[in-house]
Amino acid sequence: MTARTTPDRCGPKALRPVDLARMAGVSTQLVRDYADAGILPPTPRSPTGYRRFAPVHGRALLAYRALAKGFGPDTARAVMRAVHAGDVPEALTLLDAAHAGLHAQREALRATGAALEAVAGEDPGAPAAPAPRTPLTVGEVAAHLGVRASALRVWESAGLLAPARERGTGYRSYGAADVRDARMITMLRRAGYPLPAIRPVLDDLRDTGGSEALRAALAQRHTDLTRRSRAMLEGAGLLHGYVTEVAEEGEAVAPPSLT
Question: Any signal peptide, and if so, which residues (predicted)?
């Protein structure tokens, strides 16, 4: 006669940390870290103190991993914690903010692309369409571009700008080509480009007057944003499935209402 065993709190479908780790392709230690961080719902323990997971924990794990790919680990962690606290509106607010940020990046990218022809078509070695008065001081250039003077100094320190210096005073003196370069840097920074990625764009424009490097940078950025947008969609889909299933099953981690 076979002895009957009494299932623990998670029932006959209890899972071990290694089961969840294999499910998500992560280490068992990472699963434990997720549980401690509130990324997974509350986890009961066996009489000997071992964590006993259930399928609901697996769904939470997969939802978090998908969210992290699109929204980043910080936002994904905050979303899962809000869900497990029963505050779905807060979780949705976090997702909405991330989507708004992505949209803003797309708009900046579109604006940069629209300005590409006018900027790339200028002769790098000769001033075209000069400002009302040249040369300009750093403050005048900053006002002309709508940036801080300190930003221009940072770009100069990074080797992206090299304005001349006035004799005697040592003040920076921006010619038309310097203003054009500063304008290009401004547009790329607003589109989300880090300073190291801007250097080859400026070098290409200065050396050849061509726009291929800039076009390639914009195309790559567009691809990256599309990839992230798809990842956000996938993560939101898994989160919706997780929250809905938990609510339907009446799990303790579910909020009383999704509205």
Answer: none
Q: What is the CATH number of the domain that holds 236?
A: 1.10.1660.10
The band of 209, judged by pLDDT with boundaries at 50, 70 and 90, is low
Phi-psi map region of 160: left, alpha, beta (phi>0 left; psi -120 to 50 alpha):
alpha
Cα–Cα dist 188/220, whole Å: 13
**Helix, strand, coil content of the chain in percent (nearest 5):** 65, 5, 30
Residue 129's domain comprises: 122-210
Is the pTM for the entire model greater than 0.85?
Answer: no
Is residue 258, in this structure, part of any structural domain at all?
no
Q: What kind and span of H or E run contains 164?
A: strand 164-165
What does the alpha-carbon distance between residue 6 and residue 52 come to, in Å, rounded to a whole number?
14
Q: Tens digits of per-residue pLDDT, 249-259?
A: 765 444 333 33
Q: Could you tell me if 161 and 92 lie in one domain?
A: no
Structure confidence by residue, pLDDT tens digits, 58-90:
999 999 999 999 999 999 999 999 999 999 999
